Amino acid sequence: MPDILHDFFIKATPEKVYEMVSTGEGLDRWWTKRASGEPMAGREFVLWFSPQYDWRASVTHAQRAASFEIVMTRSDDDWHGTRIRFDFERLDGGTRVRFAHSGWADASEHFRVSSYCWAMYLRLLKRYLEKGETVEYDHRDDA
């Protein structure tokens, strides 16, 4: 099975990065249009992008400032059952983020597009934390 993997550095504390990937308010700054949920194992997350992309995920792991993982429970078919995980390492001046979107059945066209999109969205996360830059949801694909 292919995985999407991205490692990058953010000039922000692991606590701040964790907040941005494990809360609805944080996710709405860089990925979703409207998200909600609690960062606790077993809890459901709502990941709303539009009426046709009203997805759900279950939190499988949440350790403040260290790691956060969800498994997709309602999504496009090829995302269903995949895992999205963030691991954080505190470094001098910021945080190393190790991102993985794993469990894909194959390297389909949607896998390839998603790999590119994750790089774009993770860049928005970085820019928000480092520069306070916010891109409106409807313009994120063009940022």
Return the string of H and E elements: EHHEEEEEEH
How many runs of DSSP E, i.e. beta strands?
A: 7
Query: Strands of the largest sheet, in order across it?
Result: 1-7-6-5-4-3-2
Structural class: alpha+beta
Strand content bin: 35-45%
Report on the biggest sheet.
7 strands, antiparallel
- Radius of gyration from CA coordinates: 14 Å
* Overall average pLDDT: 97
Notes on the protein architecture:
This protein has one domain (4-132): START domain (Alpha-D-Glucose-1,6-Bisphosphate, Chain A, domain 4, 2-Layer Sandwich), CATH 3.30.530.20. Helices cover 27% and strands 38% of the residues. The protein has helices spanning 14-22, 24-30, 109-131; strands at 4-10, 34-36, 44-50, 53-63, 67-74, 83-91, 94-102. It has a seven-stranded antiparallel beta sheet. A hairpin with a 2-residue loop joins strand 6 (83-91) and strand 7. The protein is globular, with a radius of gyration of 14 Å.
Keywords:
143 residues, alpha+beta, Alpha-D-Glucose-1,6-Bisphosphate, Chain A, domain 4, 7-stranded antiparallel sheet, 3 helices, 7 strands
Architecture blueprint of SSEs:
Blueprint: E1 4-10, H1 14-22, H2 24-30, E2 34-36, E3 44-50, E4 53-63, E5 67-74, E6 83-91, E7 94-102, H3 109-131
Antiparallel strand pairs: 1-7, 2-3, 3-4, 4-5, 5-6, 6-7
Helix pairs in contact: 1-2
